[in-house]
Amino acid sequence: MAIRVCVTGAAGQIGYALLYSIASGSVFGPEQTLELTLLDITPMMESLKGVVMELQDCALNLLKDVVATDKPEEAFKDIDVAILVGSMPRREGMERSDLLKANAKIFETQGKALDQFAKKTVKVLVVGNPANTNCLLAIKSASSLPKENFSCLTRLDQNRAQAQIAAKVGVSNDAVRNVIIWGNHSSTQYPDVAHANVQTASGSIGAYEAVKDDSWIKGDFIKTVQQRGAAVIKARKLSSAMSAAKAICDHMSDWWFGTKEGEWTSMGVWSDGTHYGIPEGIVYSVPVRINPDRSWQVVDGLSVSDFAREKMDISAKELVEERDTATQFLSA
Ligand SMILES: NC(=O)C1=CN([C@@H]2O[C@H](COP(=O)(O)OP(=O)(O)OC[C@H]3O[C@@H](n4cnc5c(N)ncnc54)[C@H](O)[C@@H]3O)[C@@H](O)[C@H]2O)C=CC1
Ligand SMILES: O=C([O-])CC(=O)C(=O)O
Fold first, then answer.
1. In whole numbers, what is the pLDDT of the chain averaged over residues?
2. What is the CATH number assigned to the segment(s) 3-152?
3. Considering the entire predicted model, what is its pTM?
4. Which residues line ligand 2 (CB under 6 A)?
5. Protein residue with least CA distance to atom 9, ligand 2
6. Which CATH number fits domain 154-325: 2.40.50.100, 3.40.309.10, 3.40.50.10540, 3.90.110.10?
7. Which residues form the active site (predicted)?
8. Are 244 and 134 in contact (CB under 8 A)?
9. What is the pLDDT of residues 54-96, one digit of tens each?
10. Centre of ligand 1 from the C-alpha of residue 8, in Å
């Protein structure tokens, strides 16, 4: 049976880079038929029409239907998956609180619409920035949906970190496993390789041992990953889209099929206050193991150094502040 997958902000850059991968089977598998619902705002409907024409022109076998709409109730009707990319971008002169305010409205409205119209099993991935706090607002606005059905994207950060380590050691990207992104999808995130391993000719070894440069790991590596989004914007004059789309596919495919034996992945999830001293009631990126039934657990029991603790707390503090600012803008 076909699954229904909604992508919001579908007329934007990430949408354009993402839709082919979803529709051609790279996320939900080569056998899974699907119906796409594409949501964007009214002024983008003409442009979105062009995207729909292109999807048709791809002549894909798995794609059974495409609906393009500016109405959340239509886009979210009976969906199995929601990928919430659409959001208000930061404009010149805007303060962070202006951005939080504009997006609070969007994610409150969409959370309520998901609550009302989506399947109760819907899996919701929030990409639009500020991703963690937007995800939190969607969770708060969708009270009939389990909090575990929501996550936000930090896989791009994980992929960036993995690629940096692979390049430094001189191995292929898939030789680097179990990198962790802690915290916010922002420059306070903490990319952590203390528990990562690298497959080398002489077997699997810890990332610190493979890199042999602790000061790089604790300095330039962390800074490069934290600042990578800004570096791409500086170079391209546009934010990351190809790599963001790839990360969305990686995240969603792991959520759909489960993580591999012995591996975990990072995603921003609701914190219930019982893991790693992370405050309750924020959406914080942690390592998770995902089961074949699409449930997941936080990977507990990893040692946390003083160095890591300090960095994890900085990001938590930022998220608590974002939450406290953004929740003031909720209507109820
Ligand atoms: N979490 C992550 O790792 C990453 C997040 N992002 C974020 O993803 C978002 C999208 O990025 P791009 O595609 O490059 O932006 P874009 O500006 O090219 O596209 C955004 C689209 O969202 C639409 N939109 C705005 N408000 C909407 C609403 N209420 N409902 C539905 N659609 C709406 C816009 O009309 C536009 O078509 C941005 O917030 C960006 O900062 C980008 C890269 C990585
Ligand atoms: O930095 C931005 O605005 C876009 C983004 O989230 C990223 O590239 O990680």
1. 97
2. 3.40.50.720
3. 0.98
4. 129, 156, 229-230, 232, 239-240
5. 229
6. 3.90.110.10
7. 185 (proton acceptor)
8. no
9. 999 999 999 999 999 999 999 999 999 999 999 987 777 777 7
10. 8
Site of tokens 């699409």: 294
Is pLDDT at 332 greater than 70 in this prediction? no
Residue 229 CA: nearest ligand 2 atom is: 8
251 included as an active-site residue: no
Report pLDDT digits (tens) over 226-251.
999 999 999 999 999 999 999 999 99
Q: What is the CA radius of gyration of the chain?
A: 19
pLDDT of residue 75: 98
Of 185, 195, 251, 275, which is the active-site residue?
185
- Which residues form the pocket of ligand 1, taking CB atoms under 6 Å from any ligand atom? 8-9, 11-15, 39-41, 44, 85-89, 106, 127-129, 131, 153, 156, 185, 239-241, 244
Question: What's the pLDDT at 315?
Answer: 98
Annotated binding-site ranges for NAD(+): 9-15, 40, 103, 127-129
How far, in whole angstroms, is CA 316 from its chain's centroid? 17
Q: Contact, 270 vs 44, CB < 8 A?
A: no
Sheet with strand 203-206: strands edge to edge: 176-177, 197-200, 203-206
